Structure formats: structure tokens, C-alpha cells
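Appendix B. Extra example for self-study. Work through it before the problem class; the solution is given directly after the inputs so you can check yourself.
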Amino acid sequence: MSNNRHKSIGLTDDQVLSMYETMLLARKIDERMWLLNRAGKIPFVISCQGQEAAQIGAAFALDREHDYIAPYYRDLGVVIAFGMTAKELMLSAFAKAEDPNSGGRQMPSHFGQKKNRIITGSSPVTTQVPHAVGVALAAKMENKQIAAFTTLGEGSSNQGDFHEGLNFAGVHKLPVIVMVENNKYAISVPIEKQLAANVADRAQGYGIQGVTVDGNDPLAVYEVVKEARERAIDGQGPTLIEAITYRFTAHSSDDDDRHYRERSEVDEARKHDAIITFEAYLREAGLMDDEAKNDLHKKLDDIVNEATDYAENAAYAKPESALKYVYEE
Amino acid sequence: MSNNRHKSIGLTDDQVLSMYETMLLARKIDERMWLLNRAGKIPFVISCQGQEAAQIGAAFALDREHDYIAPYYRDLGVVIAFGMTAKELMLSAFAKAEDPNSGGRQMPSHFGQKKNRIITGSSPVTTQVPHAVGVALAAKMENKQIAAFTTLGEGSSNQGDFHEGLNFAGVHKLPVIVMVENNKYAISVPIEKQLAANVADRAQGYGIQGVTVDGNDPLAVYEVVKEARERAIDGQGPTLIEAITYRFTAHSSDDDDRHYRERSEVDEARKHDAIITFEAYLREAGLMDDEAKNDLHKKLDDIVNEATDYAENAAYAKPESALKYVYEE
Amino acid sequence: MPVMSYIQAVNTALKEEMQRDEKVFILGEDVGRKGGVFKATEGLFEEFGDQRVMDTPLAESAIAGVGIGAAMYGMRPVAEMQFADFIMPAVNQIISEAAKIRYRSNNDWDCPITIRAPYGGGVHGALYHSQSVEAIFANQPGLKIVMPSTPYDVKGLLKAAIRDNDPVLFFEHKRAYRLLKGEVPDEDYVLPIGKADVKREGTDITVITYGLCVHFALQAAEKLAEEGIDVHILDLRTVYPLDKEAIIEAAKKTGKVLLVTEDTKEGSVLSEVAAIISEHCLFDLDAPIQRLAGPDIPAMPFAPTMEKFFMVNPDKVEKAMRELAEF
Amino acid sequence: MPVMSYIQAVNTALKEEMQRDEKVFILGEDVGRKGGVFKATEGLFEEFGDQRVMDTPLAESAIAGVGIGAAMYGMRPVAEMQFADFIMPAVNQIISEAAKIRYRSNNDWDCPITIRAPYGGGVHGALYHSQSVEAIFANQPGLKIVMPSTPYDVKGLLKAAIRDNDPVLFFEHKRAYRLLKGEVPDEDYVLPIGKADVKREGTDITVITYGLCVHFALQAAEKLAEEGIDVHILDLRTVYPLDKEAIIEAAKKTGKVLLVTEDTKEGSVLSEVAAIISEHCLFDLDAPIQRLAGPDIPAMPFAPTMEKFFMVNPDKVEKAMRELAEF
Ligand SMILES: Cc1ncc(C[n+]2csc(CCOP(=O)(O)OP(=O)(O)O)c2C)c(N)n1
Ligand SMILES: Cc1ncc(C[n+]2csc(CCOP(=O)(O)OP(=O)(O)O)c2C)c(N)n1
Ligand SMILES: [Mg+2]
Ligand SMILES: [Mg+2]
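Solution. C-alpha cells for the complete assembly:
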């Protein structure tokens, strides 16, 4: 990477540092959750590891004060960038009452937070694509200069809702950006058994823009999402982005990936870990040195520790509170 | 059209004449059904008119002794080519007990006849696409040299089942041919409000072959389906064919198309009616003259008259027979 | 008071709500220029334009899903399923999403969508244009299911559905569209979702039903009245969640209960009505709880012989009422 | 007789049926190399290869629809939905297609597909990995819904489902998978679909239930036996269509009926059981028909406090039994 690439695409030094910090925070929260899970303290983890660069690159290209996002379960990086705090995420991991996503009702990584325009998500994959399209439709009806951004896995791009949502958006030229985080597996099923084409090739069938981008390169992702957003706001319609990534962890804490993929493949992928390569970029650009790195790690570790402690000690929702909010009260 | 085009693509004189005869029979049955509907004798008609050339061109390119078809409601031409008789079709129009499609249980044009490998169809559109894929999968598992052929409208190509079915077929390279009969309307909704691309452009997203063909030209359709079938049998996977047609009638006997399309548009389309243009081709090829034409019309009119009379006088299913065949008996 | 048909009441309610609140918009197949295959949205495209009366691509999961997204944003979408039978591709969006959005977000988000669909038989619609589909959804907390029986109820309940801050399935009987006429006030009014309505007071037997069958019951009751049998008729109006108090009260009133639906029998929404009664007023009953319903076959056949065999009608209702009265 | 777990019984039945009939094949998400997320298909990929144990793209409507197509052709597909909660995108294929194929073709075509799915709660699965979904389908003639409670029943009923010439939904309780063990004969045997099974003979009260709740009821019954309360337990096994005769017999036997499900209450399959009883044996009852079920909330929450609040358990069953016995 050239050491002033970020400037050439309009990002300040502070912004790239903030991107790195957000990526690293996501990674650290994720890692902590695995530890907590293995220690028997939280029942479930599903990871962002390996996909942070794509997530942060994309999120920083959006208007984080006004755009709406409909993230999928791996988008820890996206939701942090949109304002969800480590504490809030830990409250969710521990399923505590204060969890802003669901009050402990949903599994962790089922994001949702209205004040940050993070649309509530479910477990069935791909349902969020039509939702994002609906938000984009509403925004257009109300003449708002905003975009709706949604993500999903490449396996999930085979659901009918992907097709129906993108087609609707294409016909109505709606300001929606759909980013598929292609990490090459849908649980154990490798991409060759999921698709016989590139995800981005599907754009053509909806008359929309399709782009493939290196999901390990946050600046590259930033660029394509930035452009997609400009097109969206400009009335030129949706963009389908395929970010090529890799899933470093097992599918979730319930999965053992050794049954279906070689360790060597994972090791190879980890060499391209954006946490490492983007750090190297920042060093080359003169924005990071050992001291700054240590400070940053210390700062983030403190945040994660504090969040963990708080969440661990927080209260569960009362049993009967399960009865609340079925309908408007 | 050159007057020996049919020979150059491997069709004999008898075969093209048989194609014409089948097209004309489909048209005549269809027209008769409208008359019967307007006379209050049958409650419902949905038409093939304007799509016969695509249907017959395709059907004749298949192995009509072994291939399976999952037709949609306009495919009168396809099912006749696959062996359903005028009498059987009229029995269905009159909803009589002897109707082989459903014993009078379904509306007309909900085709199904096991002995002719016509897979039973329903009203919800596009569900037949995965079915055809399933048949192709089974055929492949059993090492049968057969193809599964299915059709639908362009509006229906926006359903999730289209995407899911084609993707499945693409991944497993199954011997299935999907022909979209693009007649430019889904009831009242014009194609611009249905898709922002050509239907055939969707093939790429499934890693399969996509072809657009003039659906008014039975020989052109024959050629692409023939080639698709060869590829299918050869293990090269599915083909998506978009046949450009036009719907001459209202959507169905319950529709009045004057609300949403100009008469001039319909008149213009009727000029390309394949019943006329293909007759002209046969005349130029020296295969048809006035006498032959009159004989053919007479022969087909007799068939339609006889079928109508038979069906009109046939019995309805007994009321209590509605209780039969919910489960195996 | 003006007299209008059931479908005019639908049309009027839609129009008035769109005039009242610009966040209300319609999306569905053929709802625009054509005005809907039953003309429920006639004239609205002309009045409100193609953005607020939007012809969508032929894809029900998107119609529901895009509507849900817009509702979460703050709009009030009214999605039309062309026939209730074609709601099936949208089940995931309705059950996994719309029904659970408020709950799963702990009240942070909500989903004020109305999904309208014509249901019911007796129109030569055959297997896939005649079904009653309410039982599929009438076990999903978070949803409300409204099935009005009169033009008056249609207007008041459709307005209530559109203003409701939760998802409402609004099923309209397609045979009622033009068959039923009734007085409908010009004024703006809403009727409460979740409340059943006594359509006839009586003392001898209780009929609990909804939709078109309410009229069959009313007709049959008139006949029985001549014989001195006095029928109490409760119209459920909302079939999910049920109005328990009203059901219990109606059952207790006469001690003899007939439940009527045109849906197939096993597992219909009436099963729950029977369960409520047998849980709460068993000792008030003087006769077993009777059910009159369609036969347990996949759907209504096309041929007139078999369609008639399937459909509930006033004669069948009358017969069942008389038998119960004589019990 | 060998003792095996509930999930081993699933695995054994699949394996034996695949050995017996080469038209049987499995399709679903992660069923191949991974052997299923619960290991139901473990070892089958190795034994039968990737054509007969097929990992599909992540698309439930295609899994069902392609299976249906293959079934119409003459194969015997066993489709897996990874969780019952994810069957929703396939509802159109199941209800509009599988359920109606024989009927709509007047017996010309049939659709011998089995659709397996793990359901049920108590596994920290939260809203979307805990649901009971049977009520959605238990109103669709043409479908059969089997929900076995023991390893023995699993083997016999899964084999019956695969050999059945009509579509069968086969719901397996995911918490039962490893929790429940029992004797399972080595031999090939099938159990009749559509027949309930008396799991305990008793004279004081009748409990009618299915799935994991059968065990809760059996445990509670043991406790009550010490107090001299003798509980009769009927396991529905097939929840659609219901075994009416067995239900009526069981209800009449004691005159006091408790229905138990872990599904939410309103509109569950127990409503129909209550309706059958109140239609056919009202005067044999000595107490109102009681129902113990989950609360009417969209689905089971994740937090242990709320999950426990939702779930039926032996204590809750015991309490309900005792109250009924004392009525
Ligand atoms: C409709 C539905 N079916 C099945 C599942 C179970 N499931 C959860 S994640 C997953 C794989 C998703 O793969 P992909 O879309 O590639 O995303 P990734 O996890 O790789 O990021 C599956 C099958 C689900 N959540 N929803
Ligand atoms: C799932 C579903 N939704 C709606 C309908 C109602 N419907 C019947 S045909 C039709 C239009 C189909 O258009 P297209 O696919 O272009 O086929 P065409 O009739 O033009 O040949 C619609 C909306 C249906 N049959 N199925
Ligand atoms: Mg993936
Ligand atoms: Mg069309």
C-alpha cells in the first residue's frame, strides 16, 4: 500500500487512525467473548474476526449520523462504528436487562438500536435485505438524503429475499447498498457448493451496479462504499458490493470447523489479517509506532475490561418481564 | 425467413408442419374457451395467445417421450405437444370429472398428467422452478438421459423461488431448461415496473447459460432449446431462456386490459402473430397452400367441436368425491 | 347514512386514511393503474400517484419485507396480497419479522404495517383462490388478525388497523366484496381491534363465527326465529388474539354453542374458541360444543358440485342450529 | 436391546432407510461433511457420498421445492431444515405444493417427502432457535406432522415417515437429542403415523401431550403416584391429523384432562384436542379442560430468567396435575 493512499481518497490521518481503532476494538471485544464463552460465562458467540476491515471500511464511508443500517450477525465492526458501545455489546453477550439490542431477549450479535439507526435483526438470514430496501423507499418518499446499508454472507445471498429485495430496489432505483461479506463458507458449506458465480455478478440481473472488492483492505472498501453512497443519494440506484474476506474462527461457539476445512487454509488466510496489514500501512504512513500501539491496546483493553465487568455484574431481566412488549403497551 | 431454415436446423417438412398444426390447435382451443366463457358456459379462461410459437418451438426441441415438463398456466401449446388432447383440455375447462389434470378440482390451465410427464402445477407462480430442478436432480442421480423443462412469466421471475431454483441447478449443473415467456406484462404491471434488466441477464449470477430469443419465431426457439437440451444432457448444466412474446388477450377472463395498455400496442403486436408469420414461412417453403390450409382448419375445428361437445356433456365429479385423495387411499 | 358495498368500505377506508396521514401508502400487485384485481384500490392511483399507490414486482416476500422496512422507518404501509392464498411466500417476513420486531427489540422498534388480503370461497376460485389462511397465523403472538363481516365493520376496523402500531393482517372475504351492502357513516370512526361484536341477541343457542358466515348465521337465525328459536350471534371480528371475555359471555348466555367457519375443520381458529369455552365455562354448557366447518381437504375444488359440497351456506348453518337447539 | 439417545435413533433410522432403499436421499444445510449441526446425519456422508447426503445452498424454499420435485419424480427425499424456526421461507412450498399435490392432481401425482426439523426450547436458543412451529401447519390437510417423544418412537416413526407416500413433517425436540436415552430394537420396525400412544396407564387424571413434555409429565406422574394420584398419559405422537379415537378414549377414562405443550397457548395444537373433547365427551368430564403451555409471547427469550419463565418443566406440570386432581 502506498503510504498516503488514505489521503488520496479523502480520509484524514485521524480518520484512518479511528478506523484502525474501531477495527481493533471489534477484534478485542470478539476475542473476549470467546474467552468468556470458553470459561462458561456466556452461552454463545458468533464472530466478526477476519471481516473487520470490510465492516469498518464500509461504515466509515456512510453518513453515521443519518444513514440506516441493517447489519447481520458478524457486523460487530459496523455497529461499533455506528455508535454501539463495548458495554452495550457486553450486556448483550451476557443477556442482561440493560442490553439495548433486545434487553437480553435475543442471542448476542442480533443487533438493533433505534437511536443509532441500527435496524433490529433476527436469526433467519437475509430478511434484512428487503427491510433495508423498505427504509430506502421511505427515505426516498420523504426526500431524505440518506442511504440504507445492509450486509449478509455469501451463503445467504442464495435466499429468495436477496433476489426479491435487490430487484425491488433496482426497479425503483432506491438508495440502498448491499454488501455481501464473502468469507467463503456458510457454516461448513464451501462457496463452490453455494454459488456457481461471483456474488457481484448478480447485480446485472437487477440492472444495478456490482463491485467486487478486497475485504481485507479497509481503504478499498471505503472507496467503493463511498461511491455507492454517492450514487444512491444521487438517484442512481442501489449497489451490490462483494467484499472478499475470510472467517478466522469457527462459524460460532457451537461449531468445530476442523471437520470441514484445513488448518493450513485458515493459517494462510490469517496472514492477510487486516489488523496486521492495516497496522503496517499506518506505520509506513508514519501514523503508528510501538508506543502509540501500546497506548491504543491499553486503552481498548481497559474499555473491554470495564465493559465485561459491568455486564457480568448487571442484572438479568425479571422472569415476568418476558410478558412485556408483545404489542404496544 | 429463408425457406429452408427448418432443414438447416434439422427439422423435416413433416415436423414443421406438425409444429404449425400444434400451434394452430392451441390457438383454436384457446379461442373456443373464450367463446365458451363469454357465453357463460365456463367460468374461467387464461390464454396462450401470442405465445404459441415459443411454446411449440421449445416443446418440439425436447424429447417428448422422456423429458419432464413443469409448465405454467399459459402453456397450452406445450402440453398439447406433450400429448394432452383437445378433449382432455376441454374437460378441464368445463371442470368435469374426467379431466386428467385434476378431475375438475383445479381451474383450467393448471396442468398435470403423469403419463405424459407433465408435472402437476398450482396457482402460486414460480413454485414449479424448484420442482423442475428436483426432477433434474433425480434424473441425474438415476443416470437418465433426460431434461426437465419449465416455464414461467417474466413477472414471476422476480419470485424468490426463481433465484433459489436456478442457483441450486447452477451449483449442481443439473439438466434443466428454464424458459421465461416474456410477454411484457404481469397482469397490468408493465415490464419496467417488474425488472430493471433483461431476464436472461440473470443467468450470469448463477453461472449458467442465458439466451434471449424471439418468441414469435418457433424455429429460433427450437434452436436454442435444442442446444440447451444438448448441454443439459451433456452435463453442462442449466440454461435460462428468455423468449420475447406478447400477450394478445387480457390477462384472463377476469381482466380488462383496456385500463392499462393501449389498443394500438396490442394491434401492433398482433401483426407479428406467429400463426400468420409461420404460415407465411410454410407457404414460402412450399409446404402450405390454400387448400392445405382449409383442410387443416377443418380438421382442427372438428377436433375442437368434438372435444367441446364431449366435455360439455360429461359429468361433474360427485359432491362427496371432494373428500378423496387427501392422502394415499 | 350512505349504503355501500363491502369493497367500497375497503376503498373508502384506504382513501380517507391516505388523506388523513401522508405516511400511509399502498403497495402490492396491480394496485396502481388497474386499481387492484377486485378494485379495492380503484381511484387511489389517480388521486395519490404512483409513489403512494405502488405497483410492485410480483414477489410477496418483498411486498411484505419492503413494507416492514418502511414501517420500521416510520411509514404506515398497507400491503396488499392479491389473494390470501398467495401470502405463503411472505410467511417468513410476517412471522419471523413483523410479529417479532417489537418484542425482540424490547420495545425499541415497532412495525405498524397492515397486510390486506382477500380470502374465502364460493367464487369458483378453486384450490388457490378460495382458501381461508387465518389458522396459519393465529398462533403467532405479535400479530393481530382482523376479519370483518360488514361494510360498517370494514371501514372502522381497516382504519384502526392502519393506525395500529403493530402489524395487522386484514382478511377481506372476496365473495362479500360485492354481495354485502350496508350502512356506513360518512364520518371518520374506528372500531376496536380485539373486540368481538354481538350481531344478534338471543337466548336459546349461541353461534360464534366471523366473516361471511356471520351472514349465513343471521339468515338462518331469521328462519329459526319463526319457529321460536332465538339465536345469539357473536361475530369474532378479530380472530387473533381472541376476545376471551366476549366468547365466555356468549357461551354462558345460552349454554349451547355452535361454532361456524368456512375454513377446514381441524385446527381452525374455532378450535381455540372451543378450548377457551371448555376451559372457562364447561359447567355452563348444556350441549357439546358443535362445530360447522369445511371438510378436512386441502382446499376448495373448482367444479361446482364439489365447491358447493365444501362451502358452508345458510342451509347448513340452519340445520346445525336446529340440531343444537333440539339437543 | 441397545440403549441409544434420541438423536442416535434419528441417525439410525436415516441410515437404515438409506441402506434399504436407494431412492432415499438427504438434502439440507451442513448435512454432509459436517454431519448436521446436531450431528443427526453423522457418518452418512462418508457411507453414502455427497449425492445422497447433499449439502445444499442456504435456501429453504429450494430445499423443500427441489425435494418436492425429486419426490414427484419418484425419489424419497429427506429434507432437513436446520432449525424448525427456519422452515418459514419454505412454507409456500410445503403448504401450497407438497400438501396439495395428490389432491390437486386427483391422485395422479404424489409427493413422498419427509421434512425433518429440530424444534423446541430450553437450550439457550433464544427467539429463533427454540420455537415450536407445528401449529402453523396443523391446519393443512394433505400434511402429516409427527413429533416423537422417545428414541424408540423416533426410529419407528421416522422410518414410517420416509416410507409414507405423502409429505410428512417430522419435528425432533432438540433438547431431547442428547437428554433422552432409551431402548431401541436393532430390528427394522415401523410405527403407525396417526396413532397416539398411551405412555402411562392411570385412572385419576388424563394428561395429553407430545414431545419433550411427555417426559415432564411422566416425571411428574411418578411423584404424584407417591401421593396416590394415578395419572394417565397419552402421547399424541402425530399432532396432525390427530388420533381422535385415542383422545376421546383417554379423556373419557378419567374425566379430568390436562393438555400440555411447550408451544405458546393460543392456537396451539392442543386447542384442537380441547375442541375434539368438548365436541365428543363433554358429559364425561368432571373438570374444565386445563391447558398448560408457554405464555403468549412471540418466542422464548435468551436470558435464563426469561427462558425458564417460558419453558414448561416437570414442576409446572406437577403443579397443574395436582390442581386438576384436587378439582
Ligand atoms: C433462513 C436460515 N436458515 C438457516 C440458518 C442457519 N444458519 C445460520 S448462519 C448460516 C450460514 C450463513 O452463511 P453465510 O451467509 O455465508 O454467512 P457467514 O456466517 O459465513 O458470515 C446458517 C445456515 C439461518 N440462520 N437462517
Ligand atoms: C405467488 C403469486 N402471487 C400472485 C399471483 C396472482 N397472479 C397470477 S398471474 C400474475 C401475473 C403473472 O405475470 P407473469 O409472470 O409475467 O406471467 P404472464 O401472466 O404475463 O404470462 C399474478 C400476479 C399468483 N398466481 N401467485
Ligand atoms: Mg459465509
Ligand atoms: Mg408476463
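Self-check: Residues B 74, 123-125, 152-156, 181, 183, 185-187, 247, 251; C 29, 58, 60, 82, 86, 89 surround thiamine diphosphate (ligand 2) (CB under 6 Å). If your reasoning did not lead you there, revisit section 3.
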